[in-house]
Amino acid sequence: MSDTDRRVLIGEAALDVAAERGARALTHRAVDVRLGLPVGSTSFYFRTRKELLRAAVTRLALRARADFEEAEEEQEAPSDVEDAALRIASLLDHMVGPRRRDTMARYALVVEVADEPELRAALARAAFSVPLAADLLTTLGASEPRAGADLVAFTEGLVFDRVAGNGALDAPEPGSAESVGRFADAVAIFLRGAVEPSPR
């Protein structure tokens, strides 16, 4: 196995540990145990805990970027608010379903990197993109400059609610029509407000 492959495995294992046990449990030894490696193996590749945290955040960012690029390649621009809401809902459902591990790891890590501006910024962008949100809203006809950032904040809240807030108490099964539908209904309300502001 190459050094690059081993580093990827360690980054993925670090995300597993953070998602399952919290960021405080993320240590070199915990990753060694997770991968069945001799004690000291992880510290050979990432000597400090900060380097290990960076490896986890980097893996998270790369996985999120791959999701964004795949979504962009496969679809044309949305035709209307309902179409856009459904597409966003599908991505959010993906975050609480197949990508739930990444979502939980991101929440666990955010406190750990609070005093590290570079890592904090990378983690903040590891699930949502303000520029992509702004482009989408411009395509739909929104003119408010901050609409993209507001959409990201709104969808961040929807995901957190679904996995850790009130919404988690009666959450439908990820991947189900109900799960996607709940997300789509909420997002459509936001988008209509951004694209068709109420008359003053």
TrEMBL record:
Q: Domain named Tetracyclin repressor-like C-terminal group: which ranges?
A: 80-178
Pfam families the UniProt entry points to: TetR_C_31
Record's InterPro entries?
A: Homeodomain-like_sf, TetR_C_31
Q: Can you tell which superkingdom this protein's organism belongs to?
A: Bacteria
Protein name, entry field: Tetracyclin repressor-like C-terminal group 31 domain-containing protein
| Protein source organism | Saccharomonospora xinjiangensis XJ-54
